[in-house]
Amino acid sequence: MDRWKVVVNDLRFTIVGIQVRQVRKTTAAPTCKLLVQRSQKEDGVNGVTENCFTKYLFPMYPDLARHFFKYLHKTGKCKNKHINLSTFKQQCERIMAMLDDNAIIEAYVRMFTSDSDESIVTPDGLKNLLYISYKLSMDHYPEGPQTCLMINKTLSAVINGCFNKKDTHSVGFVVRWLGEHCHRLIFPVHRYCVHMLATRHRDIEAHVESNGSGAGLELATPVLERGAWHAGSGALLPVSAAWLLAATAPPVYSRPAKPPPAQHTGGGSAAALWLARLVCAVPSHWAPLYASREHGLGANRFLHHTLAYRGPTLVVVAAEEITAVIACPQEWKETHQYWGGPDCALIQLYPTFAVIEQAPKMLYLNTSIRGYPRGLRAGSDPRKPLLCVNDDFDSFTFQGVPYTIQAIEVWGCGDQTSRENQLEVKKWQVREAERQRNVKLSAADWIEHPDRYLLELAGRPQYNTSAS
């Protein structure tokens, strides 16, 4: 009986997959036809022109529209400046049917290649692509459109990491580098393009003036606590750096919240729900747990604000020359052994962005156990850890180079329950300390108490024993 259940479930998911592929193949047709109609009316051309493509499909992102249209024009091998209906529809359906991660990244990297050589990527071309991804994510920020003054520094760090002072790279190299370090940066652009190709015809048909912002499309941008990155406590992790880390660290750090339960709406609802999950995501909530500039720099301060948080955390360690991030997927603990799951990671954020290492059992924290190294460490090789913070938390070494710590921050990447539970534990600790402080000793207990012996050594051997 269980075997038949497995067969039925496999068949059901196969049918859902077929339905989704059919939806993807047909959803671009209405938009394609309406763009041709607009091009005929406004430009007098029997096809899709770049003018109408930009005006009606991506009005808020003309740079994306220009590169997208150029890519469709080249891959369709068009001889005229416009794209005929059949070619345009075929190329759009090909992009909408993409499911392989590398194929998606390669397609959008090729869109932003050099105008003179489509196999070459320049730093400016990659920076334009990444800026569009950032702009899309910030325009769809759950709390409204956001801006970040540090975006140029953040994008420059990525470009420095990819190009390493070189003028050009091949498409294959850039695709491999993005796939290794921050492949999820490209997916918001793809989700947005698919969403617009599938739904934009509704606005065009209704003649509704729309800004093309893609209402209803939520992208996986982490939600930082309001005001946290505007205040001094969030100086190390501006919103652009959070956007970059969310696309770099394993998904557990930006894991979407559970979607609302699906309502039964008849046939095809499963396929529609599955398709909606591909283009929509409810972002997680990142909360500041510890900031040395606000709470003080020291091991005890770090432990007080970080321990008992039962969720993923990001530890940002900053010096004047460099900023590194330790990604911890579980609750921090003090031990003389290296620990951590496969989602542990060490990332260099500034001035050159790179994922240094991602491996299990690469975290170490010890401030009290004698006979073992003190401080915080990260690296899978205990004999040569990549990052070492000393026990005073005032200096660290990164890949063997010493630095002086300017600031440390810890961000909680779990749900709101993790933060609430941590605060409850802290309240209990305060209550327990007050209770222990107010304990009254009887005369018999005081005779054997070690504090009595210490006072006698200090020169106070006489006590009032009249009560006894």
From TrEMBL:
SMART domains listed in its UniProt record: TLDc
The source's domain of life comes to: Eukaryota
Q: Which Pfam families match?
A: TLD (PF07534)
Looking up InterPro entries in the UniProt record yields: TLDc_dom (IPR006571)
Indicate the segments forming the TLDc domain, all copies.
Answer: 261-414
Task: State what protein this is by name.
Answer: Uncharacterized protein LOC106118012 isoform X2
Which organism does this sequence originate in?
Papilio xuthus
